[in-house]
Design a protein that fits this description.
The protein has 169 residues and is mainly alpha-helical. It contains one helix and no strands.
């Protein structure tokens, strides 16, 4: 075999040095890229862990809020039930008291005429009876035209009772 010319050897050596330098440069870049990827992976793992912890805490908070709302719902339902029972009792009482209320309203409507009647009776009692000694007096036992409270039959005047005022008020 023949030996290559020195120029070719130098060129080949220069090429090998360049290839070796390029390989070293690429290895350095690869190491830097691997370090960057590892750092990013670690940051992503920590961030993922933080997100999982936050998500777990949100889940626990949600569960606590749901439990509190369920307890509040049970309490509210019990309150509604109690209020409905009280309302039912009041409705029953109102139905029981309604006839009495109507009676009291009727009494109140009739009160003014009744008060007038009682006042008139009191006045009549205050005046007292008329003396019976006067002849022709309606209370003397004789017939009188002043007591024309007949039922329409003129022949029954002898059967009429004389009116005398007197109350036990």
């Amino acid at each position: 075999m023949s030996t290559p010319p020195p120029l070719q050897i130098r060129e080949a050596n220069a090429h090998l040095v360049a290839v070796h330098r390029r390989a070293a440069e690429l290895e350095a870049r690869l190491d830097a890229a691997e370090r960057t990827v590892r750092a990013q992976a670690e940051r992503l793992a920590r961030h993922d862990q933080q997100l999982r912890a936050a998500l777990d805490e949100l889940g626990r908070t949600k569960d606590r809020e749901i439990a509190a709302l369920q307890e509040q719902l049970v309490t509210s339902e019990a309150t509604v039930h109690n209020l409905q029972a009280a309302l039912h009792q009041r409705d029953k009482l109102i139905r029981q008291l309604q006839p009495r209320a109507e009676l009291l309203q009727d009494i109140c409507r009739r009160r003014p005429p009744l008060a007038g009647l009682l006042a008139a009776l009191a006045e009549a009692e205050r005046l007292g009876p008329l003396p019976a000694s006067e002849p022709g007096h309606p209370l003397s036992g004789g017939p009188s035209l002043l007591l024309a409270n007949s039922t329409g039959e003129e022949g029954d005047r002898d059967n009429l009772q004389p009116a005398v005022f007197g109350t036990t008020v």
